[in-house]
C-alpha cells in the first residue's frame, strides 16, 4: 500500500470519527442539562415530549452521517445536512441549539466545493443558503450578513483546496504519461540493442553456413573453417547477450565490458569471413571519445557492416572513423559487389541508426552511391546535454 493510500485511509477514519464526535456532542447538548439551561437560559428540555426528542435524535444521526460521508459522498452529505437543518427549523429548540446543525452544514458545503464536481458546487450553495434562509424566516431574523460571511469563509478555502487537488491530479497524470513514455522508449532501446547484437551475428552465421554448404563436398577444409567461424560468432553473440542481461538487471557494467570503437577488428572480421574485404581508416584519438558516443558509434558501425555483409557479400567495404574535436564522424561505403541491393531508408537497422543519432542531435544519411554500392554517413557531436540521455543508458543503447 502506497503512502498516498495510507494517508487517504487515515483521513477517512478521521472524518468518520469527526462525524461520530459531532453526533455525541449533539446528544450531550440535547440530553445533558448544560450550564445555560440550568440557569434558565434556553428552552425547557424537560418539557419536550418524547416525540420531539426522537425527532431531534434522528436529526442528530443525519448530521453525523453528513459529516462522516462529506468527502466520499459530498452531494448526498449536503442534501442530508440541508434537509435536517430545514426540518429542525420547525422544532422548538433551533434558535438556542445551532452549533451541531451549523457545523454539519458547513462541513458538507466545504466538502462539496473542495472535492465535488460542478453539480456538487451548485448543490452546496443551494444546500447552504436555502436552509439558513428558511431558518431566518421561521425565526424572524434577517442576519444575512452573518450567513454570507460564513458562506464566503467556507467556500473560499474549499475552492482553494479544489484548485490544489486539481493541480495535484494534473501532476499525477503528467507523471503517469511520462512514465509510460519512458517505458515505451526503454522497450524501443532494448529492441534496438537486441537487433544490433543478434542481427549482426546471425547474418554472419547464415553467410558462413551457406559458404560451408557450398564447398562441403569439394573443399572440406574451407567448409570446416566456415563452420568454425559460425561457432566463433555464435559465442560472441552469446557473450553480448549475457552482457546486455547483466545491464538490464541493474548490475553495473565494467568499462572493458562495453562495446567500443577500439574493438573495430571484431566487427570487420564478420565481413571478412563472409568473403568480403574491409579497409579501416582511423583519424584522431579514439580514447578521447565520450563513453556514450563510443558505444553508439560501435553499434552504428555494427549495423552498417551487417547490412554490407547481408546485401553485398564479397564486396569491399571502406570504414572511416574520424575524431574531429567535438564530434565523431563515421563513413561506411561498399563497392556494390553482389546481386542484392537495398533502398535507402528501409529496414529496422537504418531506423535504429537514426534513433541513435537523434539522441546526440547528430546527422545521418544513407543511400546508394553514384559510382555503385551503398554508403552511410553519421556525425555524432560530443555535446554534454545532447548525449546525457544516451550516457545514462550507454550500456544498453549507446
TrEMBL record:
Cofactor: [4Fe-4S] cluster
Molecular-function GO term, any one: 4 iron, 4 sulfur cluster binding
TM spans (from-to): 12-34, 46-66, 102-130, 142-161
EC id: 2.7.13.3
Keyword annotations of the record: 4Fe-4S, ATP-binding, Cytoplasm, Iron, Iron-sulfur, Kinase, Membrane, Metal-binding, Nucleotide-binding, Phosphoprotein, Transferase, Transmembrane, Transmembrane helix, Two-component regulatory system
Gene3D superfamilies referenced in this protein's UniProt entry, alphabetically: 1.20.5.1930, Histidine kinase-like ATPase, C-terminal domain
Keyword 4Fe-4S on entry: yes
Location within or outside the cell: Cytoplasm
Domain Histidine kinase: from-to ranges: 299-384
Gene Ontology cellular component list: cytoplasm; membrane
Domain of life of the organism encoding this protein: Bacteria
Coiled-coil regions, chain positions: none
Alphabetical list of PROSITE patterns matching this protein: HIS_KIN (PS50109)
Keyword match Ribonucleoprotein: no
Subcellular location, principal: cytoplasm
Protein name as annotated: Oxygen sensor histidine kinase NreB
Top EC category: transferase
Function: Member of the two-component regulatory system NreB/NreC involved in the control of dissimilatory nitrate/nitrite reduction in response to oxygen. NreB functions as a direct oxygen sensor histidine kinase which is autophosphorylated, in the absence of oxygen, probably at the conserved histidine residue, and transfers its phosphate group probably to a conserved aspartate residue of NreC. NreB/NreC activates the expression of the nitrate (narGHJI) and nitrite (nir) reductase operons, as well as the putative nitrate transporter gene narT.
Pfam family, one: HisKA_3
Catalytic activity: ATP + protein L-histidine = ADP + protein N-phospho-L-histidine
Stored SMART domains: HATPase_c (SM00387)
